[in-house]
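I hope you will forgive my troubling you with a question about protein structure. The matter concerns a single protein, recorded as an amino acid sequence and a row of backbone structure tokens. Please examine both parts with care and let me know of anything in them that strikes you as inconsistent. Here, with my thanks, is the record as I have it:
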Amino acid sequence: MNVPNLLQLVSEQTMQNLLPLLALKPKTVIQVRSADERFKRAAENFKAAVASLRKTDAYPDWSPEFFEIVIDAQSPSADQTRRKVGESLSLWPGAVVNLTGGTKPMSIGAYSAAAYQDEPVLYCDSQARRFLSLNERRSLPELSDFDEIAQSLTVEAVLAAHGIDPEKLKSSRPGQQQMECARTIHRIYRENRTAYAEISRKLRDQLHPRGKEISKGAIDSVLQDGLPGPDNDAEHEILNAATEAGWLRESDGKWFYQLTGNTLKKEDRVSAALDVLKALTGGWFELVVFESMQKSGRYGDLRTEVQSRDRSQQVVGETDVVGVDLQRLSLVFVSCKVSDEFLKKPLEHVFATRHRALEFGGTFAQTVFCFREFRIPNKRRIFHDGCRVVRARVIEGEPDFGFSGAAGDTVPLEGLTKAR
């Protein structure tokens, strides 16, 4: 549905402004805000989110023109807002007025101006998942379905709405062969833990000798020698699956690291080899979690490895999967670990991951930690206690994302489906 004009009150309630905009697809957007510097940034971020969505299949060639109207007050009164919105509606008649984003005085003032000039008034009820018409004399134009609009949100757009430049980001979606490899390793992890542990140890001993990252001087020798040979059928199956996924290559019955990207420098070769190591000794669990989230139907967009295009500037740190939660209309940041074996500072990991989620995803961003298993009871207790403090979720065992409880819930090994 295209309408000529949309007037909205700028706030930090990103989704409540973004969803009506996508439902109406106006030619002109009038952003009315206070003089508070925070909302100047919010208005700019909002435009960046729209620009990001314009590159998707859902909104091709849609390029609304934005106008910014500033009320000369840090906390505008209802009367100040009424006057400024009234002036704006005189310049842009026929505008739908979205009240959702403002403070109560601003919303009252905007409603008064819209009612006086007999313009349609919209409220985005995210709890009831619908767009409400608040002017009985002037109904809203026909809108697209709320859930259909929510499905079109992307991780990049929501990050952009919170001030992260999408042009500086890169992210991944795993391919089919990578998913098949992750499923294979997960099955072997369940059925033959000894074989999985042994091949993981051998790979770490190669690229993390004595617990330290391999040196630049030693990397070419390791790459030339190849991986330790498989000692049993389970190891052989893992190496074959990793070859199909493009992480390894096989030659004359021996396996070698398949490096990708720019590997001219030795430090680049070290980094590329460590990426393969990560995929085979823990990254596969991220893909298992990714698939579980995908199958849940709860998420409209999912990405792995969301980070800066400059490898030295990690955008979301140790977060492994980022998605748009369609039920809560917020971003979810998921950190995945096969076990707590290499988690040296559990509380530091909890607080740092939660801080990043709030920084990049806003006040309503969620944090979830997925552990295939905890091996150290005391570390498990400390980790769960920390998650309760910061209101983050913990999922242990088989990842299950069918949850409906409050943030901060912890989920036992049996999984969420049985616990709820």
